[in-house]
User: Fold this.
Amino acid sequence: MRILLVDDSALARGILKVGLEQAGFQVVGLASNGQTGYELARDLVPDVVIMDINMPVMDGLTATQKIMSDCPVPIIVFSSQLDGPASFSAIANGAIDIMHKPSIAEYNNPVFIEEFRKKIIAASEAKRIFFSGSGFSSPGRAVSAHDRAGTIGLVVMGASTGGPVAVSEILAALGPELGSGIVLVQHLECGFDASYAEWLQGQTRLKVSLASEGPVPGPGCVMIAPVGVHTVISGNSIQLEDSDPLFNQKPAVDKLFSSAAAVYGSRLLGILLTGMGSDGAAGCADIIRCGGYTLVQNKETASVFGMPKAAIELQAASEVLSLSDIPARIRTLCGGFPL
Assistant:
């Protein structure tokens, strides 16, 4: 796999190049600023670009936007900015994922290299999406979305690679009149959850916050599962559970979905979006088994089809929809109240 590294630190570039090559990747280009990174991405057509944010000449946000406009290729933002939404601005500009930039002393850490390897592989499977605006229903479901209109008491949502943009597209199309609250698990690097919630708040009229122990979110509100604990539903309340990771994820989508299904039954809507692996598939199956309803993103609009595909293969998708069709279905199922 061919990698382009864009970082203004010569030391960082050198150490990362060695680590990535030892992990089996081919580093085909090195750039010290966004302008050079853009030019190399255009000329070399790498499989994945690793992009720093703060650089001279042209920053990573602008370079990401130019690359995705002129010569699209999967981009991973490599950022130390944990306390602000800049990294997610790069996601809005077209980057596929974010990875926390550790201290240079950690670059040779085998755990870091392995996590980086997984991120790169997931990014390489992503594709640039052109929304078709059409979906299709999964066959064999006896109860339609129309029959369920206005019956949903809680929405649970899960996403991984490619998820920040997909989630923002959905939430941007929903308003505070939405008749149900939403709890979201987005697989994120440790430390990015607060800045993700801050960035997401700027994309929607819904009220967005990090989840904490207490009541589930009310109508028109979204709670983001914090990184480092599982977010589960128990007795109409949110609990933060410090148990082992599931699918190497903490929080895990399955933990949220399955616990919510046991409480809400037929009044639960589960939404599974883009991501690598199978987290959320078993949770969707539990939602169906308990009488709930699931919406799964289709292959044509999912950056990475792994998680949705796993749910579909388990016959755990009530409907398989394009990303652009999901908000309207949410509004139908959740109903609303006058502002």
User: Anything to note?
Assistant: The chain has two domains: 2-124, 136-334.
